[in-house]
Every structure is written in C-alpha cells, then in structure tokens.
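Collaborator request, handled under Task 6.
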Amino acid sequence: MIDLARKQAFLLLDDIISNKKYANLTLKNGLNGFDERDRAFICNLVYGTLDKMISLDYVISLFAKGRIQPKIKNVLRLGAYQILFLERVPDSAAVNTSVELAQSIGKGALKGYVNGVLRSISKNKENIPYPKDNVQRISYKYSYPEFLVRELISELGDKEAESFCGHVEDHKTCLRVDENKASVSQIKEQLNAQSGVYFDNCIYVSGEPALLENGVCSVQGEASVAVVNALKLEENDTLLDCCAAPGGKTVYAATKLKSGKILALDKHEHRVELIKKNAQRCGYEHIITALSADMAKNNSFEAFDKVLVDAPCSGLGVIGQKPEIKNTCTPEGFAELEKIQKTILQNASAFVKRGGTLVYSTCTVRNKENIDNVTYFLENNPEFSLDSLEGCFGESFEKNRDLSKGYVQLYPHKDKIDGFFIARMKRN
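Structure tokens returned to the collaborator:
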C-alpha cells in the first residue's frame, strides 16, 4: 500500500522543482487533509530534500548509471535524503517506499533500478568519497553551489565558509510579543516558550505559533527585530519603509510610535494588501499607510525622519527557511540584485530629512550586497555618513560587538539567529 504522506511529498517536490515554484507557498497549499504528524513529515521531506539537493545529486551520481528520468530522479532524491539524513527512518523503509512510489507514479518498469541505486547508497553511506578539491568538497558535502562556496571562502576564509555552509538550523519559531498589548513573561509562560537569544520581546516556540490573530504575537526573527531597533525610533517620528511587504518590520516599527506615521511601500499590489492586513491584524492601521510604489524607479514623497531600505536580496542568511535558493541562484542573478539594491538605496536617500537616519539592511551575508553597496553609496553621497549603532540593541546584543563603525553583519553559524546585514547612516 502506497505511503500517502511520502507520495504527497513527492508530488509537491516535483512541482517545486519542475515548475520553479516557491517551496513555502507550495507546501502551504499542499498539506490539507493530513494530520499534524504527516504534515510535519511531508515538510521535513520536501524542505530537507531541497536543502540537500546538490549533495543528494552527487551521491546519486556515484551509484546510478545513465540518464535519469526527471521524476525518477526526484524519487531517488527523496529516498536518498531519508537514508542519508533521517536517522529515525530505517533504510529498508526508505528503499521500499521509494520502490512503491515509483510504481504509483506509473514508473513500475524502473522499480528495480530505484531499488538497486538506493540499496547501494544505503550500503555505502558511511564511506561517501568526496573530492579532494576544497571548493568541490564543501559544495557536495554541504549542498552549496560551487561558485557561491568560492565566493564565501574569498570573504570568510576556508574554516568560516565551511562552518557557514555546514550550519544546521534550529527550527523553532521566533515570535515577537507586542509589549503594548501583553506581558512578555506571561505570554512566555502561557506558550511554554524559550527566551530570545538577544531581545526580551522575542520568544521561541515549537510547533504552530499562537496568539497571532489579535496581534499579541507576530512571527518575526530576532535579526529582523534588530533592523527596526537600528532606526532608534521616537514616538513622533515619521518613517518611510521602502520595501515593506509583508509588513513585519513595519508593524514592529508602529509599536514604537504614538503620534508618528509610517508610509510602507511595495511595488506589487497584492503584497501591499499583505502590509494592510498585517497592520489591521495588529491594530496599527491608524499609523501605517501602505501604497504601491517601485523604489527602483523615480518617486515623489515628502521627507521623513527615518527611512528604512530592507532591500530585496539573495536571502542567504535565511536559507534554512528557503532552501530552494541554493538550487536556483546564479552569479548573473546576484549581479542583477546588486544593481537593484544600489538603485533603491540611492532613490530612497532622497527622502531622508537633514539630520535624519537611513538604515540599509538585507537578509544575506554577501559583501557585494552589503558593505560594498554601502561603501559605494557613501562615496557618491558625501552628505551621508555611517552613524554608530551603539545603544540601539541593548546589552545582550551589543556585548563583544564593535557597533561604533555603524554597521553589523550577522551570521547564522556564529550569532545563532538569521544572517542579516544592518547599516545605519545619518544625513548631515
């Protein structure tokens, strides 16, 4: 009898890979009808296989001969992922269910092939031979594209680059508690949550997050919280949030204002609606105005006390949540992003008041998207200068960090939160 959870995992994985879809959205729409245990298993299989796909393809290539049909390759990927990375699944179960899966999708003629490849992987999994070349070894062992490994090594060195690539995410969910609405200690006790790594208003929960409907809690990582803290908002400030959707940072910023106002922008109308819904859910629609505008083009707005550019980026700092990034990123795509980031930062700077603050942030770790962009901007805009981040975050975060330089780069493997870059600049 076919394992329905594994078959659904295959169908979702095949859809994501074949049609280049977003994993999170595909999974969100593909788990109906399954109980909590099966939903968790399906998510594990799909996200895990995407996360380890470069490694899986390398191992499969060692034991499979000839050209592999795309659907059979996805069957092998799922089976190999269970054998290599899921200790609680017996190898025999991984092999047998993969054989049944091949039969169920009309590939019964290849059952013996699937069986043979996966049994060979199972037999040799403790002695997988990786290349001696360091770039290739890191690429195949930790499932990162070679061009990116090479870039990370050039920026971080061999040891740090391998630590970054080998980092395993803790999949607890970080919630930010709105302290205008509830006591963090009471919510922490109610949800049996763990304390934040750096910030008192953040807690970590396992399973489905709670208390979201009335805005008491919002799903938001601590690095994202740090971005808003870098603004040092005062209660009557005006803020332009340039790339705001879905509105997590916007809403957190609104919690710090009383008579102030926020203009939140996104170039896509459907994403503007997400900002509006977030503002309404949390009760800050009287502070937040959301509009459609493309900050990569010329716009006309008034000047603001604070401007936030949380730029579209490669997302390498949150790769644990978006593993498909590793399988779709290209040098050309990165170069295009860098151009867009420079343009948005330049355009946004026009709306900073004299004496006002401009914060630039990304959820990635590449210098070319981060400090290199800031350096380029400052060289071409002498009225702006880096402004110390000291006093923005509190003692837990600031301890042992040099924040006087005005920027900080966070790494998941070192800082235990998402990999973000944050720079604070002042207009003189």
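The cover message to the collaborator said: "The chain has three domains: 4-127, 134-166, 230-427. Residues 230-427 form a domain with the Rossmann fold fold (CATH 3.40.50.150). Please let us know whether this matches your experimental observations."
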